[in-house]
Design a protein that fits this description.
Helices cover 47% and strands 10% of the residues. The protein is α+β, with helices and mostly antiparallel strands. Strand 6 and strand 7 (299-304) form a beta hairpin. The chain is globular. The structure holds 6-diazenyl-5-OXO-L-norleucine (DON).
C-alpha cells in the first residue's frame, strides 16, 4: 500500500472511531482493544440486573450434592487481558468447576506433549451434537474418543496426564489450575464424594474407551481423578482469571506468570467454540459468538481473544446442562461490547 493510501485509510478509520464514540457505541479505549472501565462495569451490572430474576432451569441433581447449592446465587465477572476486574453479584461464592475444567486439562495435555496433535490423534476434536454424557457418541465415534469437552474425551484427557500415581496426576492438574487462577483452589469434598458414589455412567464411558484402546491409564483411576478435577472449587472471579489467562495468550494477567505456551491458546479456543455447550454449541456460536465452556455446577467462562474473559455463575441449568442465567448474562455482554468473534454485526 502506498504512503498516501495508508494515510487515507488511517484517516478513514479515525473518522469512523470518532463517529462511533459520538453515537455511543462502545469502542475500544485501550491499545489492545479493551473497552473502557465505564463500559465494562456498566455491561456487567446491567447483565446482572437484567437476569437476576430469571428462574428458568433447575440445579443439576444427578450429582446429589449439586441439588443442595442455593439456586438463587448469581454472579457476573469480567477480567481483562490487562488484569482489571469488574463484578456484580455472588462472585466470591466457591462452586464446583465441573466441566469448565475440561478445556484447561486439554491445554495441559497439549503443553505436556509439546504439540496440539495429541488431542487430534488420541482424543478427537469433532463435536458430537449429543449430550455431554452420551454413551451412544462414545460408542459410534470410532478411532478417537470424541472430543476433550464431553465426558469420555475429558476422562481420556485426564488419562494422558503423565504421572506415576493417581494423586500425582491430580496434583498436576490442580497445580495447573491454580497457576491459571493465580490462587490456591480447594476441592469440595462433599461434591467429590457425591459424584464418586454416583458416577457409574462415567465408568461405563471409561470401559468403552478401554476396550478400544482409547484411554491411556487405568480406566477407573482416570475416572476418579476426573471426578476430583470436577470438584475443584472456584469463584466466578477466579474462573474469570483462568479465562483471562487464555484471553491474554497464556500469561496470567494478575500474576504475570506464563502458564500456557501461546501456540496452544487458539487450539483450546477452537475446541471451546465447537464443543463448549455440547448439543447447544451451534446455538451458542450463533447467539453469543464466543468460545466458552459450561459446567453443571452453574459456571460458564467465555473468552474474548486478546481482550477479556466473561464469567457467569448461577446453579440452575437447562436440559443441556448449561447455566441459564450465566448464558443470558454472557450473551448480553457479548452483544453490548460487540465482542462476537465473527463480527459485531454493526
Ligand atoms: O462428569 C460429569 O457428569 C460432571 N462431573 C461434569 C458434567 C458437566 O459439568 C456437564 N456440563 N455442563
Amino acid at each position: 500500500m502506498s504512503e498516501a493510501r495508508r494515510g487515507s485509510v488511517l484517516r478513514q478509520f479515525a473518522g469512523v472511531a470518532v463517529l462511533l464514540i459520538f453515537v455511543g457505541v462502545p469502542v475500544a479505549a485501550s491499545a489492545q482493544g479493551i473497552p473502557s472501565a465505564q463500559v465494562l462495569s456498566r455491561a456487567v451490572q446491567e447483565a446482572y440486573d437484567k437476569f437476576k430474576d430469571v428462574r428458568d432451569g433447575a440445579n443439576a441433581d444427578y450429582i446429589p450434592e449439586l441439588a443442595k447449592v442455593p439456586s438463587e446465587l448469581f454472579g457476573v465477572a469480567i477480567v481483562t487481558a490487562d488484569g482489571d476486574v469488574y463484578t456484580a453479584g455472588d462472585v466470591d461464592y466457591a462452586f464446583s468447576i465441573q466441566s469448565v475444567s475440561k478445556p484447561f486439562t486439554a491445554a495441559l495435555v497439549m503443553q505436556q506433549e509439546g504439540t496440539p496433535d495429541v488431542l487430534r490423534q488420541k482424543i478427537g476434536v469433532e463435536p458430537t451434537g449429543m449430550k455431554f454424557n452420551s454413551i451412544l457418541a462414545t460408542q459410534v465415534i470410532k478411532g478417537v474418543s470424541v472430543n476433550p469437552l464431553v465426558n469420555s474425551g475429558a476422562i481420556a484427557a485426564v488419562s494422558l496426564v503423565k504421572a506415576k500415581s493417581a494423586p500425582e496426576r491430580f496434583d498436576k492438574i490442580h497445580g495447573f489450575f491454580e497457576q491459571l487462577a493465580g490462587a490456591k483452589l480447594g476441592v469440595i469434598e462433599d461434591v467429590y464424594q457425591s459424584e464418586a458414589a454416583t458416577n457409574q455412567r462415567n465408568r461405563a464411558h471409561a470401559y468403552i474407551l478401554f476396550v478400544s484402546d482409547r484411554i491411556y491409564s487405568d480406566p477407573m483411576e482416570a475416572v476418579d481423578v476426573y471426578t476430583r478435577q470436577c470438584s475443584i472449587a472456584v469463584t466466578a472471579k477466579q474462573l474469570a482469571v483462568m479465562g483471562a489467562t487464555l484471553a491474554n495468550n497464556g500469561v496470567n494477567p494478575i500474576t504475570h506468570q506464563r502458564v500456557l505456551d501461546t501456540r496452544y491458546v487458539p487450539r483450546v479456543l477452537a475446541i471451546m467454540m465447537m464443543n463448549g455447550f455440547y448439543d447447544e454449541s451451534g446455538l451458542w456460536a450463533y447467539t453469543a459468538g464466543l468460545p466458552a465452556k459450561t459446567g453443571v455446577g452453574g459456571g460458564v467462562v467465555a473468552i474474548v481473544p486478546g481482550r477479556m474473559a466473561i464469567v457467569g455463575f448461577s446453579p440452575r441449568v437447562n436440559e443441556a446442562g448449561n447455566s441459564v442465567r450465566a448464558m443470558k448474562a454472557i450473551e448480553y455482554i457479548s452483544d453490548q461490547l460487540g465482542a462476537n468473534v465473527f463480527g459485531s454485526g454493526r
